[in-house]
Design a protein that fits this description.
Helix 6 links the parallel strand 6 and strand 7. The strands form two sheets. The chain has a seven-stranded mixed sheet, with helices on both faces. Strands 1-3 form a two-stranded antiparallel ribbon. The chain is built from twelve helices and nine strands. The protein is globular. Helices cover 39% and strands 11% of the residues. The protein is α/β, with parallel strands linked by helices.
Length: 390
């Protein structure tokens, strides 16, 4: 499946941009070449109660190579998390994002960190995109002090308020009303920013989603509800769970847009469109047509309700990393070897972060009594009770 059709910029105009060393920082560019390249998204957008945006997307060598590096790092992180879970270094729930990386990087390319993102429990890559580090990620997964939530949240509860990331949430759909509350605060403050509230197709039937949507529509809040439709809930295909799986239309009176969520450039275009719409007109729903390679969680093999041929077919035809790789190679922005070197660097960065995370100590037992009350009010009473006082 072809990723894009080149519309402008000849190959002779594009210089090889791999001129500086790679770093482990996800947000640091690997090129400064911003020569414009215009492409078309893999498939058209489909709109509901709105005129869909053009398929034309402007990009450049710097962005394409950064997309590739970021997604390669995300993919390697999730594969490593799989191994750590099987080695029992990660306990509890763990939901992996490999296959869906285009949503994270494309969304980030359209936003600033003053915009807010809130999501469900498949949150590792969103956190990384918001400026989180590999060390913070792996330390949190392994319940260590250096984790982004000080080892107390685990896989489902990554958080980075200073990066505009208001967390992963374990209760299905519960983050959507919270995200709408963030959008209310943004409109109240008149700061011209938006909130992206992400949820899965399994959560799309939750009553609280429709209640929140009613409120944001009444008040014209700058809320963008993003359904990451990976086509399977907890072992259940979308068609078995939803009478109408056209999730971009589910808002009825709220406009919607269906997006190829395996195409990072299409996601960027759609998110820019949605942000402009939300600031001017109020809420909009984006349905990201994406796919998860792993099961729902690490306890789900992911092969009892779908065929291995289906998974293989998606990998071969729609994989978000391979699509960007093909575009980079088509424009002579890098060689196959240089792209392989980026992937090797990602593996090295992940391995180093895991080694450091393993050295991080477990949280002190006193942490059991913190973050319960506002400003730890009542903490001393809990400590006394912990000593066996009656």
């Amino acid at each position: 499946m072809a990723l894009s059709h080149v519309a402008t910029a000849s190959r002779s105009q594009l210089l090889n941009p791999l001129t500086i060393l790679l770093s482990s920082s996800l947000r640091r560019p690997i090129s400064t070449d911003t020569t414009p390249i215009t492409v078309e998204t893999s498939v058209p957008f489909t709109g509901h109660k709105c005129e869909p945006p053009s398929r034309t997307v402007e990009t450049n060598p710097q962005e394409l190579l950064t997309f590739f590096k970021d997604m390669a790092l995300m993919r390697r992180m999730e594969i490593a998390a799989d191994s750590l879970y099987k080695a029992k270094l990660i306990r509890g729930f763990c939901h992996l994002y490999d296959g869906q990386e285009a949503v994270a990087v494309g969304m980030e390319a359209a936003l600033t960190q003053k915009d807010c993102i809130i999501t469900a429990y498949r949150d590792h890559c969103i956190f990384l995109g918001r400026g989180g580090t590999l060390l913070e990620s792996f330390a949190e997964l392994m319940g260590r002090q250096d984790g982004c939530s000080r080892g107390k949240g685990g896989s489902m509860h990554f958080y980075k308020k200073e990066g505009g990331f208001y967390g992963g949430h374990g209760i299905v759909g519960a983050q959507v009303p919270l995200g709408c509350g963030l959008a209310f605060a943004q409109k109240y403050s008149k700061d011209e920013n938006v909130t992206f509230a992400l949820y899965g197709d399994g959560a799309a039937n939750q009553g609280q989603l429709f209640e929140a949507l009613n409120m944001v529509a009444l008040w014209d809040l700058p809320a963008i509800l993003v359904c990451e439709n990976n086509h399977y809930g907890m072992g259940t295909a979308e068609w078995r769970a939803a009478k109408s799986p056209a999730y971009y239309k589910r808002g009825d009176y709220v406009p919607g847009l269906k997006v190829d969520g395996m195409d990072a450039l299409a996601v960027k275009r759609a998110c820019k469109f949605a942000k402009e719409h939300a600031l001017k007109n109020g809420p909009i729903i984006l349905e990201m047509d994406t796919y998860r390679y792993h099961g729902h969680s690490m306890s789900d093999p992911g092969s009892t309700y779908r065929t291995r041929d289906e998974i293989t077919g998606i990998r071969q035809e729609r994989d978000p990393i391979e699509r960007i790789r093909k575009l980079i190679l088509a424009h002579d922005l890098a060689t196959e070897k240089e792209l392989k070197d980026i992937e090797k660097e990602a593996r090295k960065d992940v391995d180093e972060a895991i080694a450091k995370a393993k050295e991080s100590p477990m949280p002190d037992p006193s942490e059991l009594f913190t973050n319960i009350y506002v400003k730890d009010c009542g903490l001393e009473g809990h400590r006394l009770m912990g000593k066996g006082s009656s």
